[in-house]
Specification:
single chain; five-stranded parallel beta sheet; alpha/beta; Rossmann fold; 240 residues; two-stranded antiparallel ribbon; Arc Repressor Mutant, subunit A; 9 helices; globular
């Protein structure tokens, strides 16, 4: 079923959003979460791959909440076809149960910067929406300038200049990105949990997590609720 515009009061200044999920109830819940954010307006909902392509082509949204496991056409294939359309491209938040390393790598290769593993909380989604809204506002504010300073480019690219930083010996940029994405999808995680999500050893995961802490991209706390020695938990740093 192709959905008509969802919001009865669309606001031009809001970021137009398309929800894509094969589960009707889940899609409606996501639409409710997004619609509650003051910066976003849900314009359409799709429940399969071909429908998603049609709606994205029709509405040209600023943001797509994209599930990967879709009937008719997988979510990542939907995104590749959207990229091939050309023109203004939407931001994409992956909302998926896929935790495997290959899915995360493919998502990053497709330009996805936000990856939420189901189930997640409204607060988790809200944090990603805040990031998207902040980035889009920065782009709009920069649109009147012909040239940007490096710090402005870093901010828009969400790198903070990280691309110029030499990683410690034994750490790779690709694996670091996967670990950081895993950390963002499962807050307050142990090194073992991140290792499982990232497909690396616990020792390696701990090295990457400690590097993220050292560079202020993550924080760690001690959990005294566990029996015996307190366990170390990691969470992505809150920006803003």
């Amino acid at each position: 079923m192709v959905s008509n515009p969802v919001s009865s009061h669309p606001v031009a200044s809001k970021l137009r959003t398309t929800i894509v999920d094969d589960d009707v109830e889940v899609a409606s819940l996501h639409a409710k979460f997004v619609g509650a954010h003051p910066a976003f307006d849900v314009v359409a909902i799709a429940h399969n791959g071909p429908e998603a392509l049609t709606l994205i082509a029709d509405h040209r949204p600023d943001l797509v909440l994209l599930d990967f496991d879709l009937p008719g056409l997988p979510g990542l294939d939907v995104l590749r076809d959207v990229r091939a359309m050309g023109g203004a491209q939407p931001e994409v938040i992956a909302v998926t149960a896929a935790r495997d390393v290959d899915s995360v790598r493919q998502a990053r290769s497709a330009g996805i910067q936000h990856y939420l593993v189901k189930p997640f909380t409204a607060l988790d989604l809200r944090a990603r929406l805040d990031d998207v809204a902040r980035d889009r506002l920065a782009l709009v504010a920069s649109g009147t300038r012909e040239e940007l300073a490096q710090r402005d480019i870093d901010a828009l690219m969400r790198t903070g200049g990280r691309g110029r930083v030499q990683l410690p010996k034994g750490l790779s940029g690709e694996t670091l990105a996967i670990v950081e994405e895993a950390l963002g999808s499962v807050p307050n995680s142990s090194a073992g949990e991140i290792a499982e999500l990232s497909g690396i050893s616990r020792v390696s995961a701990r090295r990457y997590l400690e590097y993220l802490v050292e560079t202020d991209r993550a924080r760690k706390t001690l959990d005294y609720a566990t029996s015996g020695r307190p366990s170390t938990r990691f969470a992505r740093s809150v920006v803003g």
